[in-house]
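INSTRUCTION: Work out how this chain folds

Token vocabulary: learned, describes local backbone geometry

RECORD BEGINS BELOW THIS LINE
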Amino acid sequence: MERNYTTQMDAAKQGIITDEMKKVAAKEHMEPEKLRELVAKGQVIIPANKNHTALDPNGIGHALTTKINVNLGASKDAEDWELEYKKVDMAVNYGAEAIMDLSSCGDTSSFRRHIASKCPAMLGTVPIYDALVYYRKELKQITAKEWLDVVRLHAQDGVDFLTIHCGINRETAEKFKRNKRKMNIVSRGGSIIYAWMQMTGNENPFFEYYDELLDICREYDVTISLGDACRPGCIDDATDAAQVEELMTLGELTLRAWERDVQVMIEGPGHMPMNQIAANMEIQKTLCHGAPFYVLGPLVTDIAPGYDHITSAIGGAMAAWHGAAFLCYVTPAEHLRLPDLDDVKEGIMASKIAAHAADIAKGLPHATDADNAMADARRVLDWEKQFKIAIDPEKAKAYRESAAPEKEDSCSMCGNFCSVRNMNKILEGGEVKIFGE
């Protein structure tokens, strides 16, 4: 069947329900027409590059389940591509809806193309990193055209969403310089573009040539993830002038993208105290016109290196409850080193728990189905069913087997004191004996 639309948003505006919309609607227990309306308004996105042949589409945005993203990729200090392929497989197996390749060395294009041909998860990248790898020359020597050429290369390789730091223009850069921070700019892509602007004296090429950027995204149906170069890197910098100024610019860029039928999501804060999270979600929804919000955490304290998957899960659950649609996972290795496979699993699980907890709080249809099934299994002490329902069946089963109880219908913590076991007995007309059994 001939495709008579350019992007998912273009189709939605025309009243066309695409195959991707049908699949997403089925997953979300939503009428396809309702989903189409949300895509047309920009409140829901379906990142689906035409060249990502293995994609199993998912939606991100208003009234949908919270999705999670897994960052991975090789670096100069840890260039092990086989390990990165294993991380991709792990992310898919544990239910991550998206993978971002943040590689900063080596044959990045082959890695992207492999994922696009084999991986059902959405694929995201940050072309700013790859430009330095691709051109192999000093930052200040890269031209505006070369920055955009790398964006096109990523789009051709099948990337579904591109993080582009368009909002750190000369105006927001001046605001940043006038308002001192503890942590300056902690966004890797943001710091690169800021440095390029300072060394060349030129405007941010992605802001100056934003229309050309949108042309590329429209051609391949790539979703633009408007990166927050000025996201706070510590809780003391949260909700400062630079962050809000950039967010206002991103809101303007969102409207320009929608005019070209390009799907948009907005990247949000990285570090933020709990009492500011709800307000930040409301500010974003207002300034960015309801575009889906993608948060990097947020981490709610700065003193937990080695445990930042936990600080991130706390902030992520609160952010998603109050309107964020997409959570970027954080691993225990955050701020310390490239994550290994164990770190990746811990990060995925923490982020999935946060996303699910938020979906329950939001009252989404069927959000509590698994929780209710778990309660039913626990009431009758059906251990195998509990393992099957658990978010990590292997870990749950391993914990129980590591300390086998004297009686199969209890656990080693409670034994004959087990409230569930004893209530079942007494309600069935039996007798509870603590020491006589």
Observations:
- The mean pLDDT is 95.
- The longest helix spans residues 341-362.
- The chain has two domains: 8-362, 369-427.
